[in-house]
């Protein structure tokens, strides 16, 4: 070895050892449940979807307030009746395996997702696409078989994120275990309960601050909190509210709460007596104290609902207020011919929080002599008895307590699956079996245009109609709670209970 | 001995088949539609149908059973409905954590349980006996999740000596194995004590004492050796149960074991994983019983198998 090369190598060694160089740091996130898969087009739980945002990106995405932003797309245009969307793509983006991101890659991805033979569970996001046309390398045109005004919001859903065409070719269905995207992190390992990703130094926005992100499933809430206290984890999304006190007293930890887009309600089956009667439905709304609901069920981390969709969703308007007024409730019941009240069954998924809600509702409605029989259902049983029935006539459900969050961040997926007349189970989720022609017209009108002003007008009408018709007992919109180490910045919860970690950094 | 082993192993075949039928019937009788659960809360009917077809759940039940048995006999346990990974892989990466945890827990259990049991029996009716039995009753009554959280709070949060959970170094094993072992230790202590007291009444113990064998030798050689038979049975039984994975311990200490896998699989109606796990647990029990029989011979050469 010559003297010169020796000097160079020692200089390099000194540089590596030099103090003050950025310390390698990893971010560990502790979540409750296990991830279920790594193919974004084929997973259904928010945790898996949101974790995959580290590796994958869509044409569009969300900022921390869940506003729609372009990611791999630069801009789009649509025709007047929302049947053609021309999307201009970002230049110079590459997948982790070096495959260029271009119009052909978009075509491969959307064609794969919309092909019924592939049996991908997020197919409905793009099933209305009839043809994907590659206009040039940077331009792609989606031609739909029917107007769909919420197309761009659907493309922002994690289920429509872009996978490397070369990796799809190579791995086939095993893409589930070998994810290759364009995101800020590359896949390292996925074991029984841990997902590890490493910084992508060629990321088109510039490399991330942290070296690795580790997402670990820790089912017990007390253990997740302990990890935060010992520094084993730096971010705990969906932090259990009952442990908040402990964290708030610790100066090394920070708690953030923000409104979610999860709205809770009781759907009233309009096909069952007496819920077909609007006065009865309105009476039930007047008989429940929504502020008390928020306090009792969610420890105050909740806001009373003022429309069929949460305040944080695009196109939300304040539709009104059903004041807590027992006299008014009794009056309405009497007008409907139920002055002696009635009794009914209420169903919900079986967990502590739902049970608390059911008991609260039972107590509230007993005040107007409506006797509730509380029936908690295990998730599999609920799926069968509520959602997988053969036809609407077979529905046994009378009242159903549940929550909904529109994972596209758009009013369409917050209203259409739940309240459009034809969208009853088993095809969709109108478990109120509500059918209102005026409402249907407004929902379908909004779908038929991509113009934001026109959509806003339709959705305002829809919200006012649905509020007045009261197919549900409107309850509340919950808050999100996340706890983190005080020396971490750039980690956010999304209003749909997912999270964004791309900008994570340590301040010391 | 060898022919005995072979005969016993062959005898397990019908048991395994019975288990397979029972498990298949059981999981398919559970209410709930796996396709709907796999497809997720936002899936439309169209999505659910797609999932059902891709999982082969649209076929008639007898056909599914035949496929299941023939695949299982060829060593193919299918793919998990939930994660779409091969079942063998899903179980494989969680089996060793559970096996190691069980072994360490049994170490604690045998060490603590035998010691307390023997001391209580020898000092029967004295304060050591009462103290030991109070400990044993407390050990059984202590809810393991609470003990686990207390240990985490003390050793991880306050003292910072041990990691809160997860699977990795020997430090990761200490708290979960102790928490898991303590309940078993308590059972072992009570069992050892009563076995010991019974042996102490036997003639050969009296004879040994009468001919002047030192007390220490009477206890550890004459009594313990003979008390071992029921104790080995007990250890085998507990071992079999622990190998099924402790749901509570695995949840508290974020342990990637088969217990959590089973719970997750049941709530997702992940048929292939449930079937494979229950089959595995049954075979484990059969093998442990066999091992226990062999250990009898080692503990007491007078026992012979034809």
Walk me through what this model shows.
The complex is a heterodimer of chains A (508) and B (306). Chain A has 508 residues and is α+β, with helices and mostly antiparallel strands. Chain A contains 15 helices and 21 strands. Chain A has helices spanning 3-17, 46-52, 103-114, 151-156, 165-171, 221-230, 244-248, 278-286, 290-298, 326-335, 352-366, 379-387, 411-419, 437-447, 452-469; strands at residues 26-31, 60-62, 68-70, 73-78, 84-89, 129-136, 139-144, 185-190, 194-199, 212-217, 235-236, 253-268, 302-304, 342-349, 370-377, 399-405, 472-485, 488-489, 492-493, 499-500, 505-506. In chain A, strands 11, 12, 13, 14, 15, 16 and 17 form a 7-stranded mixed β-sheet that branches. Chain A has a 4-stranded mixed β-sheet with strand order 1-10-9-8. In chain A, a hairpin with a 5-residue loop joins strand 19 (492-493) and strand 20 (499-500). In chain A, helix 8 (278-286) runs antiparallel to helix 10. Chain A starts with a helix and ends with a strand. The relative contact order of chain A is 0.15. Chain B is mostly helical and 306 residues long. Helix content of chain B is 78%, strand content 0%. Chain B has helices at residues 2-29, 34-39, 45-55, 61-73, 87-122, 127-141, 144-158, 170-200, 203-210, 215-243, 247-252, 258-268, 271-299. In chain B, helix 7 (144-158) packs across helix 8. Chain B is flat. Classes of the chains: A alpha+beta (508), B mainly alpha (306). At the A-B interface, helix 6 and helix 12 of A face helix 2, helix 3, helix 5, helix 7 and helix 12 of B.
């Amino acid at each position: 070895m010559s003297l010169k090369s020796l000097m160079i190598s020692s200089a390099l060694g000194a540089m590596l050892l030099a103090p003050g160089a950025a310390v390698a740091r990893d971010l560990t996130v502790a979540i409750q449940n296990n991830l279920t898969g790594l193919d974004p087009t084929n997973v259904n739980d928010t945790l898996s979807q949101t974790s995959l945002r580290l590796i994958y990106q869509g044409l569009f995405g969300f900022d921390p307030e869940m506003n729609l932003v372009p990611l791999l797309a630069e801009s789009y245009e649509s025709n007047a009746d929302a049947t053609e969307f021309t999307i201009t793509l970002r230049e110079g983006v590459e997948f982790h395996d070096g495959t260029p991101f271009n119009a052909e890659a978009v075509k491969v991805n959307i064609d794969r997702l919309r092909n019924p033979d592939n049996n991908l569970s997020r197919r409905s996001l793009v099933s209305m696409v009839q043809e994907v046309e590659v206009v040039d390398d940077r331009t792609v045109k989606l031609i739909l078989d029917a107007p769909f005004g919420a197309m761009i919001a659907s493309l922002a859903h994690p289920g429509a994120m872009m996978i490397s065409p070369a990796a799809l070719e190579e791995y086939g269905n095993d893409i589930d275990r070998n994810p290759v995207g364009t995101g800020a992190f590359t896949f390292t390992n996925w074991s029984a309960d841990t997902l590890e990703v490493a910084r992508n130094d060629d990321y088109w926005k510039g490399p991330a601050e942290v070296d690795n992100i580790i997402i670990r499933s820790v089912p017990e809430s007390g253990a997740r909190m302990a990890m935060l206290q010992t520094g084993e984890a730096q971010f705990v999304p969906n932090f259990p509210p009952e442990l908040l006190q402990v964290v708030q007293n610790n100066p090394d930890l920070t708690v953030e709460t923000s409104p979610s887009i999860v709205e809770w309600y009781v759907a009233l089956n309009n096909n069952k007596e007496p819920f077909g009667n609007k006065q009865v439905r309105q009476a039930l709304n007047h008989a429940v104290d929504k502020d008390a609901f928020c306090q009792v069920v969610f420890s105050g981390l909740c806001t009373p609902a003022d429309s069929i969709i949460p305040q944080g969703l695009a196109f939300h308007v304040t539709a009104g207020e059903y004041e807590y007024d027992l006299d008014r409730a009794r009056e309405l019941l009497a007008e409907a011919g139920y002055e002696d009240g009635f009794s009914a069954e209420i169903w919900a998924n079986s967990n502590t929080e739902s049970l608390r809600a059911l008991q609260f509702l039972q107590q509230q409605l007993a005040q107007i002599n409506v006797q509730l029989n509380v029936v908690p259902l295990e998730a599999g049983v609920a799926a069968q008895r509520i959602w997988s029935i053969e036809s609407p006539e077979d529905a046994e459900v009378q009242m159903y307590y549940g929550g909904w969050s529109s994972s596209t961040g758009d009013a369409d997926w917050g209203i259409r699956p739940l309240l459009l007349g034809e969208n009853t189970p088993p095809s969709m989720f109108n478990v109120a079996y509500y059918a209102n022609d005026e409402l249907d017209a407004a929902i379908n009108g909004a779908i038929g245009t991509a113009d934001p002003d026109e959509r806003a007008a339709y959705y305002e009408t829809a919200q006012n109609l649905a509020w007045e018709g009261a197919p549900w007992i409107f309850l509340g919109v919950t808050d999100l709670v996340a706890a983190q180490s005080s020396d971490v910045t750039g980690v956010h919860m999304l209003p749909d209970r997912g999270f964004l970690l791309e900008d994570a950094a340590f301040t010391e | 001995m060898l022919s005995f082993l072979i005969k016993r192993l062959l005898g397990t075949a019908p048991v395994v088949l019975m288990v397979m039928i029972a498990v298949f019937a059981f999981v398919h009788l559970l209410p709930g539609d796996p396709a709907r659960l796999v497809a997720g809360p936002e899936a439309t009917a169209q999505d659910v149908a797609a999932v059902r077809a891709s999982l082969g759940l649209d076929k008639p039940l007898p056909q599914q059973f035949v496929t299941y048995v023939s695949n299982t006999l060829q060593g193919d346990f299918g793919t998990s409905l939930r994660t779409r990974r091969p079942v063998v892989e899903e179980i494989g990466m969680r089996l060793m954590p559970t096996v190691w945890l069980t072994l360490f827990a049994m170490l604690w259990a045998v060490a603590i349980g035998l010691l307390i049991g023997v001391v209580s029996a020898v000092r029967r009716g004295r304060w050591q006996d009462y103290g030991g039995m109070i400990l044993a009753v407390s050990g059984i009554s202590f809810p393991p999740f609470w003990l686990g959280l207390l240990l985490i709070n003390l050793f991880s949060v306050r003292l910072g000596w041990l990691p809160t959970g997860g699977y990795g170094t020997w430090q990761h094993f200490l708290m979960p194995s102790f928490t898991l072992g303590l309940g078993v230790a308590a059972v072992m202590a009570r069992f050892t004590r009563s076995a010991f007291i019974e042996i102490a009444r036997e003639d050969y113990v009296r004879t040994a004492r009468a001919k002047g064998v030192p007390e220490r030798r009477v206890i550890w050689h004459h009594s313990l050796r003979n008390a071992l038979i029921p104790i080995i049975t007990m250890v085998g039984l507990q071992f079999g149960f622990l190998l099924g994975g402790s749901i509570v311990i695995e949840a508290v200490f974020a342990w990637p074991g088969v217990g959590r896998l089973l719970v997750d699989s049941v709530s997702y109606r992940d048929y292939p994983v449930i079937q494979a796990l229950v089959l595995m647990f049954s075979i484990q029990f059969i093998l442990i019983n066999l091992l226990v029989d062999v250990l009898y011979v080692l503990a007491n050469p007078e026992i012979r198998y034809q």
